[in-house]
From TrEMBL:
Its main location: membrane. This is MFS transporter. Pfam families: MFS_1. It comes from the Bacteria. PANTHER family: FI19708P1-RELATED, SOLUTE CARRIER FAMILY 17.
Length: 456
């Protein structure tokens, strides 16, 4: 069977057999799983103000509770990446969904505790949620690399990455209502049950490309001809499957200037994310005088803008690639423009009207979504043999901000009594991300293990 190849890496559907489109159903599963993933991360932000009152904790203590997820999420990234390379995305991701959902549900059971015991229990459970969620985004990236050709990866990655905004759009109003009607405990119980249902659906539906009963040979050939790694989880290709974790591979990745630029930029991009899913609803309540019910609904407005920006970033990037732009230009243009727009959040320090604050935050998070193409870049650059480990290393750098951002904002607010300095702190991360992609990353291309500097 002949498969035609067009410009810019695009591939034509084989004429003898019309290709199925199972990859889009796979992407829908990734989107739903990631939406629940981020809703579970953000549940603490909606419940945060009510928990502060119940447990009598200050802003600094709440910041540490917000950060608990980040500590374990970062620690578990490299082991999680190795597990993905060793056992495959489907199995590891399914177990991850189930475990983080159980730990989320258990957070709704600590209401009988008080004071330090309550803080310790919540910190421990948030820590376990982070540990269980660690393989999720490297798994998303691996699955996209396996199921999508290169000229569709930007959009596919943008869609699953935009689930973080969809989580707020869909669940922030629901969680705000749950807190208002039933108390903060109900948020965790409802989200935990939804996650367990998702884990069952994942187990029933998800398969590797060549093993999925709905896919035909034409779709496999289309994906493969466009650079899709359809055999990523089959056989013994992966280095991790043969050897287990190897610190030499990590050292080699860290010696790549391109990858280090990507990793540092991902840290900055995620700092914007973690302000939004941790302190933003608290900002609306404490700095802008909104009720928790209103804050839950209002928080969905910037989230909608972020979702639209995220989808548009992937579409623009892939369109540039199809029209002949280099991979570097196609990925960097939306990232740099988006990060510049994200800095607009600082304007909120100079306005009082709630409607203008929400509009400016919507613009900032539209920009953040537009520039959030880190996972597409990872799919473009990760060595085939250690795709999971490479994604985990990027996620390790990126999610250090899940520790630093909540704590830093907590200290700034606690010591100044204002969110003004916090918005400047968060907004400057957009500028640093631009600098990384413009002056450090250079040409974006797939890394080959043999092409990296040899370890000593």
């Amino acid at each position: 069977m002949q498969t035609k190849t067009t410009t810019a890496g695009a591939t034509a559907v084989p004429q003898a057999l019309r290709a199925t489109r199972v990859r889009y159903l796979v992407l829908a599963m990734l989107f739903i799983a990631t939406t629940i993933n981020y809703a579970d991360r953000a549940s603490i932000s909606i419940a945060g103000s009510a928990m502060q009152k119940d447990f009598g904790i200050d802003a600094v203590s709440l910041g540490f509770i917000f950060s608990a997820f980040g500590w374990s999420y970062v620690i578990a990234q490299l082991p999680g990446g190795w597990l993905l390379d060793r056992f495959g995305s489907r199995r590891v991701y399914g177990a991850s969904i189930f475990l983080w959902s159980v730990f989320t549900l258990l957070q709704g059971t600590i209401g009988f505790l008080a004071g330090a015991a309550a803080i310790a229990a919540m910190f421990a459970l948030r820590f376990l949620v982070g540990f269980a969620e660690a393989p999720s985004f490297p798994a998303n990236s691996r699955i996209v690399a396996a199921w999508f050709p290169a000229n569709e990866r930007g959009t596919a990655s943008a869609i699953f990455n935009s689930a973080q905004y969809a989580a707020t759009v869909i669940f922030a109003p629901l969680m705000g209502w749950l807190v208002h009607a039933f108390g903060w405990h109900a948020v965790f119980i409802v989200m935990g049950v939804l996650g367990i249902v998702m884990a069952i659906a994942w187990r029933l539906f998800m398969k590797d490309p060549r093993e999925h009963p709905g896919v035909n040979r034409a779709e496999i050939e289309y994906i493969e001809a466009g650079g899709g790694l359809v055999d990523l989880d089959r056989g013994e290709r992966g280095v991790a499957k043969k050897q287990g974790p190897d610190l030499r591979h990590i050292r080699q990745l860290l010696r790549s200037r391109m990858l280090m630029g990507i990793y540092l930029a991902q840290y900055c991009i995620n700092a914007l994310t973690y302000f939004f899913i941790s302190w933003f609803p608290v900002y609306l309540v404490q700095a802008r005088g909104m009720s928790i019910l209103k804050a839950g609904f209002v928080a969905s407005v910037p989230a909608i803008a972020g979702f639209l920006g995220g989808i548009l970033g992937g579409i623009v990037s892939d369109a540039l690639l199809r029209r002949g732009s280099s991979l570097s230009v196609a990925r960097k243009v939306p990232i740099v423009l988006g990060m510049l727009l994200s800095m607009s959040m600082v304007i909120c320090n100079y306005v009082d009207a709630q409607a203008i604050v929400v509009a400016v935050m919507a613009l900032a998070f539209f920009g953040k979504g537009l520039g959030a193409l880190g996972w597409a870049v990872n799919s473009d650059t990760a060595p085939k043999e250690i795709a999971g480990l490479s994604g985990a290393l990027m996620n390790t750098f990126g999610n250090l901000s899940s520790i630093t951002t909540p704590i830093a904002v907590g200290y700034i607010v606690g010591h100044t009594g204002s969110f003004n300095g916090a918005l400047v702190f968060v907004g400057l991360h957009g500028l640093v991300a631009c600098v990384c992609y413009l002056f450090m990353v250079g040409k974006i291309e797939r890394v080959k293990l043999g092409a990296l500097p040899a370890s000593n």
